[in-house]
Amino acid sequence: MEQSEVQALADKLDRLIDRCQKLERDNATLRELQDDWNRERAQLVQKNDHAKHKIEAMISRLRALEHH
């Protein structure tokens, strides 16, 4: 191989390494965002369940009042 071919190959390899490192950083960021969304979703599901139970309790109390 000529020196220019070796240099061109080395340059391509450097760009490939840079691209891989960027993809690894992007992937880590996306995983963190996914974890945040999953935590937020779990909190919303929990709040929704809590509200559902409160509403069910209110309905039960209203029904009990109707029978008195």
Would you write up a description of this structure?
By secondary structure, the protein is mainly α. Helix content is 94%, strand content 0%. It has one helix at residues 3-66.
The radius of gyration is 29 Å
Element order, helices and strands?
Answer: H
Number of β-strand runs: 0
Distance between the termini: 97 Å
Protein structure class: mainly alpha
Note the overall shape: rod-shaped
Tally of alpha and pi helices: 1
List the helices and strands and how they pair.
Blueprint: H1 3-66
For the structure shown, list the relevant keywords.
mainly alpha; 1 helix; rod-shaped; 68 residues; 94% helix
Quick structural overview:
The protein has 68 residues and is an all-alpha fold. The protein has one helix and no strands. It is rod-shaped, with a radius of gyration of 29 Å.
